[in-house]
Every structure is written in C-alpha cells, then in structure tokens.
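Data deposition worksheet. Section B asks for the primary sequence of the deposited chain exactly as it was used as input, without tags or linkers unless they were present during the calculation. Section C holds the resulting structure in token form. Section D is free text for depositor observations; keep each observation to a single sentence. Incomplete worksheets are returned to the depositor.
Section A, Depositor: J.P.
Section B:
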Amino acid sequence: MSEITIANPDALGKPLGQYSQIARVKASELLFIAGQVATDSSGKVVGADDFDAQCRQVFSNIEAALKSQGASFANVVEFTTYLVHSQDIAKFMAYRLREFPRLFPRGAYPPNTLLIVDRLVQELFLIEVKTAAAL
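Section C:
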C-alpha cells in the first residue's frame, strides 16, 4: 500500500490556487513539487519585471520545499520549466550556467523539459519550475 503525504510548508507560503505544494509518495519514495513561481513565503511576488530575480526566488522555493522533506538538490531527478517569453531562454541558460554548478556540485544536472507558454497563473510571473525528486 502506498503512503501519500500532501504538504504545504510554511516556508513556501499559501498556494495560489487549488493545489498543494508537495506530494510525497512512498513506493520507491518519490517527491513531486508543484511548479514554483517567484513568490516569497508571504505570497508576495518577487522581481516583477526581473527575470533573474524570479529565477533566484523560484530555485529558493524549490530548495525550501526539498529541505522541508529532508532532501536537497542532490535528490532532484527532473525539472519542467515554463517560460512566458522565448526571449528569456538565453537568460535562463545563463542562470543555469552560473548557478547550477553551486546547486549540483558533482556536475550531474537533472533532466529538464523547457516549455514556452502563453502565460502563468498571474501575468507578473515570467518563469515556473516543477520538480520531481527521489528520496
């Protein structure tokens, strides 16, 4: 019998819609993190017109979600990234080149699916990243 725990850690703030931030499933123990956008723990948008600031906040939220479940970026097995503007692809790649060596010091970067979408849950958001991890 699978064990499923749904959680909304305080560090991530209240969800912006009808979903939970985390579903922890014990089968071979997988962690699924809802797409994170650039909000702080109070739900305030961070970096309204600043793609880099939004990237920093999104990955900070992912880190908080991972830590809340006793995990780290070393546990991440997949990202799905949604961008609103194709012009931000180069900025996203630059962010990854700059930050991923710190987040993944062994140089083993998880797979990432990158999608360009019309918009996200609020128009101010430029990026959203969904994460799956193995525990």
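Section D:
DSSP finds two helices and six strands in the chain.
The longest helix spans residues 51-68.
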